[in-house]
Amino acid sequence: MSDAKLNTLKASYEAFFNAVYGGIYGNAANEGYKYRGMGLNGVTFKDNYQAMSKYTESEIVGNQHLLNELPIAVDVLAGYFLNNFQKGAKLSEYNMTSINDAKSLEDIVGAAYHPNEGWGNCLATLK
Fold this sequence. Notes:
The chain is mainly α. The chain has a domain at 1-66. The chain contains 6 helices and no strands.
């Protein structure tokens, strides 16, 4: 991008997020700003809002700002973690077979941090 185009994007949060997040993962080209990282776990992209909606009774896809309300944000974060921990995702990398097996603060913090960085990333990459 030219410096002029970058300066234009930097001048508008909406233009910036539409350029970065628009047109991918369920977002229309003009929805990047609407579905930028919100909530306690920074949910981004319309497809992820749809997936996270099962953890709350509120309609967060059409009302994405609701994800910044603490009770809804807590429901979504807790639901996401519980769902992924119940699957046993990557817990073995933290010396656990379930979330209740944590033997050290380092292990539980790592296990909580990992899903927000992406379950697809290996522990070595995260470190």
